[in-house]
Amino acid sequence: MARNRLIQAAERRDDLLGTVLELAGVATGVISLLGREWRRMPDYNETRLLYQRAADVGRDRANADTALVTDRLSPLVAAPDGPRGDELVLSAARRLVHWVADGRPEDGTMSETEVAFARWADAWDSKDHPPELMSELTDRYVEAWTTTLRA
Q1: pTM above 0.90, yes or no
Q2: What is the per-residue DSSP string for 86-123?
Q3: Given pLDDT bands bounded at 50, 70 and 90, which one contains residue 1?
Q4: Does 31 have pLDDT greater than 50?
């Protein structure tokens, strides 16, 4: 992996200046990485407008639907890659968008995932959410999606 010049200079020194150079080099690398990732993120307003036009809904409904989809995808995006990885996230996103565009019908197709998400969200919103619990609830949410997408 290529190192930036600040880290290279820090490696040649064994003093306080070397430590400062190393910290500056790491900070520069992190900022650069975050900047690249931020540019790859879709623009929220463009996404909302696209959905608003495609679903033929008003701005408030488009904002609510977009937020709902984003909330429900976040545990899947943060989950460790399972057997289906990105495919699960993309399939779930498609299903969620269709479901919210149809007005979130209570036909039973999404009930298992909604229950699993509610448990995950309650734990996440609690003051103390232990990593073991969040991992278990994330796994259950992934399983619920896997079952839902098979139906």
Answers
A1: no
A2: HHHHHHHHHHHHHHHHTT---SSSSHHHHHHHHHHHHH
A3: very low
A4: yes
